[in-house]
Amino acid sequence: MSNLPSEPEFEQAYKELASTLENSSLFEQQPEYRKALQIASIPERIIQFRVVWEDDKNQVQVNRGYRVQFNSALGPYKGGLRFHPTVNLSVLKFLGFEQIFKNALTGLNIGGGKGGADFDPKGKSDNEIRKFCVSFMRELSKHIGADTDIPAGDIGVSPREIGWLFGAYKAETKKWEGVLTGKGGSWGGSLIRPEATGYGLVYYVNHMIAHAGQGSFKGKTVAISGSGNVAQYAALKAIELGATVVSLSDSKGSIIGSSISPSEIHAIAALKVKRQSLTELKSAHKYIDGARPWTHVKVDVALPCATQNEVSKEEAEALVNSGARFIAEGSNMGCTQEAIDVFEAHRKSHKDKAIWYAPGKAANAGGVAVSGLEMAQNSQRMSWSSEEVDEKLKGIMEEAFKIGLQTAQKYVKGGEGEFPSLVAGSNIAGFVKVAAAMHAQGDWW
To answer: Which intervals hold domain Glutamate/phenylalanine/leucine/valine/L-tryptophan dehydrogenase C-terminal (predicted)?
Structure first.
């Protein structure tokens, strides 16, 4: 990758996967997989385009739009669209690369991709955002389809934006098809889709807790970062299962309390719709400006659900020293590599008393899993009940946990009484599944 411009986010994601493969026995047992990794690290296709739109002052504005169609070995490209000023090719390549293996862990036939634009919805009127969505889809519609590439929402792209994007796609192509997931329930969406990433995260961690012999979420204290969909529904499900949630956060700071209630979480959701800060929450909880929660809480479970690299080495050490036992990423690449190293070193040295870390590609796969279920419902022209979707989601998260556990036990040497490395097991399991499909299709041999 030396002939490419610096892509720090993508390079971090690649090195995180590659290092776990190198430190396992996979390449010893099957050395041909080294070539598969080299090939899989290059996207099949990158689409980059300009998005010209008009603001409410009738001034012409322009942004950069992208779609990284990374890997289609297991199925059509699948991954979200992100509208945020930090969006660039490195961020989208990192997200798309992670998406390949996350999607593989769901057991569904979906490939990996990611897209978006450096458009900032904050401070924009509804009319401006709608006009941007129409212009963005005017170009993107040429490259996606129900059996080609099925985007979803991500940061800055809520169900409202999905609706505008879908309407623009339909107008451009004259097709009503399951081309976007996260649609409204009355026009092709799936029940449980908004909740799926947060719910799935909690279901996954519940298996970690049970496997470690620590019971369930009942009676556990949980720190959560973020305040978007993932954080909100992870908090609500954790509370439903008997846990106490003590933090949420946004880009400006964190609220820390002895027990955040469901009604307060619903109030936070209303603030997010209005794009308002947590400082607007009417609450007795302490607000810490400019801080993430990890150094301000003593908890059993930590769930980073905001954005990438939101847990640093120092914050990881603080969680370990506070006695936290489980950490799982609701965000993509929520922990820095240095933080992961802290967790993995503690796992090896403290056996069954260690903190146990789960990567986002496994722990937050619930969102894309239910997107895959939405695709299935669209293909059948039918809708499943929330109970049916929730049961399928629980099954998918259980299998994602088990395959990571079993693969780690197969390929990663561990000491007696040591928890298996879920980051290594999940990386290897997802990679092997994709690489085998690529081999079968002649992508490498």
So the answer is: 190-442
Strand partners, 52: 62
Is residue 114 part of the annotated active site? The answer reads yes
Q: How many domains does the chain have?
A: 2
Judgement on whether residues 77 and 103 belong to the same structural domain of the protein: yes
Question: Is-contact 335 343, C-beta < 8 A?
Answer: yes
Closest C-alpha to 72, from 145, 176, 9, 172:
145
Going by pLDDT thresholds of 50, 70 and 90, the confidence category of residue 25 is very high
Secondary structure in 3-state letters for 315-332: HHHHHHHHCCCEEECCCC
Catalytic residue among 93, 114, 183, 272: 114
Give the other-Cβ count within 10 Å of 293's Cβ: 26
Q: Do the beta carbons of residue 336 and residue 311 sit within 8 Å?
A: yes
Neighbour-count burial of 441, counting CB atoms closer than 10 A to its CB (0-12 exposed, 13-18 middle, 19+ buried): exposed
Q: Which of 126, 148, 181 is where one domain is finished?
A: 181
Are residues 232 and 328 both part of a single domain? Answer: yes
Which residue in 69, 203, 103, 113 sits closest to 429, CA to CA?
A: 103
Q: What is the CATH number of the domain that holds 72?
A: 3.40.50.10860
Cα–Cα distance for residue pair 241/258, rounded to 1 Å: 17
| Binding-site annotation, residues for NAD(+) | 197, 229
Q: Are residues 228 and 294 in the same domain?
A: yes
Q: Are residues 176 and 200 in the same domain?
A: no
Residues in CB range of 397: below 8 A, 6 or more apart: 200, 203, 204, 207, 365, 366, 369
How far is C-alpha 150 from the chain's CA centre? 16
96, 177: one domain? yes
Q: Specify whether 254 is located in the same domain as 218.
A: yes
216 and 276 in a single domain? The answer is: yes
Give the separation between CA 99 and CA 93, rounded to whole angstroms. 10
d(CA 298, CA 320): 10
Mode of pairing for the β-strands spanning 301-303 and 326-328: parallel
Q: In the structure, what pLDDT confidence band is assigned to residue 3 with cuts at 50, 70 and 90?
A: confident
**Per-residue pLDDT reduced to its tens digit, 221-234:** 999 999 999 999 99
Measured distance CA(186)–CA(61) in Å, rounded: 33
Q: The CATH number of the domain where 237 resides is what? A: 3.40.50.720
Name the phi and psi angles at 36, rounded to 5. -60, -40
Structural domain includes residue 234: yes
Range of the domain at 61: 44-181
What are the two backbone dihedrals, phi and then psi, of residue 394, each rounded to the nearest 5 degrees? -60, -40
| Pure H helices in 67-158 | 89-105, 126-140
Average pLDDT over residues 14-37: 95
pTM of the entire predicted model: 0.93
